[in-house]
Design a protein that fits this description.
The chain has 3 helices and 13 strands. The chain is of the alpha+beta class. The protein has a single domain, classed as Clam (outer membrane lipoprotein receptor (LolB), chain A). A 13-stranded antiparallel sheet has the order 6-5-4-3-2-1-13-12-11-10-9-8-7, covered by helices on one side. The chain is globular. The termini are far apart.
Length: 244
């Protein structure tokens, strides 16, 4: 038995060291964004910007968040606005381009992206309390540059891979894997042009594409980020016409 003790001790130390590495990296990421107190001080947020994709007209995008898990996205093109919203319990949408100008309830599968972004702090903040697990995957390469990779398994089973800049510890890329009805939806998001708003760092440029087809990338430029702006509950709430 004694001869196994050093090996067991080494395994325990290795597991402890790995856990320390994960929590250290998550902590550095949170500090890089402005620190937990400033992040938690943001109760509401409005982002206004533009999205562009080749051969398509530009879109105006407004994304509003409120604690604990509310989100609304308004995307306007050619004078018509697509709305997708989640009030923390149910999601609804307005899709004028499909000929439906009245609100409709969203199915669980359609809600996956929306509920992920409804978390105003992101999945790394308080990840254990949220039921997420985080693993340090070692070094990765993003556009030829070194990065530190974290694997986040969400409570619902979906997986996110975050690549952090080894100098700033801010996210430079996220790869998401959503498992929907036996299939996998994979999307890549790259972040850049970070700026501080009320002491919290936000990316002001993004590129988003399905992993299977980078030619479908769309770029998002954020013109303004406002925090702690007044947002009525009705902004997110399921419209009365959908309540039974």
């Amino acid at each position: 038995m004694k001869r196994w003790l050093p090996a067991i001790a080494l395994l325990c130390l290795s597991a402890y060291g790995l856990a320390q590495t994960v929590d250290e990296l998550v902590g550095k990421n949170i500090e890089a964004k402005g620190g937990l107190d400033r992040i938690k001080a943001v109760k509401t947020r409005r982002m206004t910007g533009r999205a562009e994709q080749s051969d398509q007209p530009p879109l105006t995008v407004v994304v509003e968040n409120a604690r604990p898990d509310e989100i609304r996205r308004d995307i306007t093109v050619a004078g018509m606005t697509v709305v997708r919203a989640y009030d923390g319990r149910a999601g609804w949408m307005i899709q004028p381009f499909s000929g439906r100008k009245d609100p409709q309830l969203m199915g669980e599968d359609d809600l996956r992206d929306l509920t992920l972004d409804a978390d105003i702090d992101g999945p790394l903040v308080d990840y254990k309390a949220k039921g997420n697990t985080v693993e340090y995957m070692g070094h990765d390469t993003v556009d030829g540059d070194d990065a530190l990779r974290l694997k986040v398994t969400l409570k619902n089973g979906d997986i996110l891979y975050y690549d952090l800049d080894p100098d700033t510890y801010l996210e430079i890329r996220r790869q998401s894997q959503e498992f929907i009805r036996g299939s996998v939806k994979e999307q890549v998001t790259e972040y850049g042009s970070y700026k501080a708003v009320e002491g919290v760092m936000y990316p002001f440029s993004m590129a988003i594409w399905p992993k299977s087809d980078p030619t479908q990338a769309r770029t998002v430029t954020i013109d303004k980020v406002e925090v702690n702006v007044p947002l009525a509950e009705s902004v997110f709430a399921v419209p009365p016409s959908l309540k039974h």
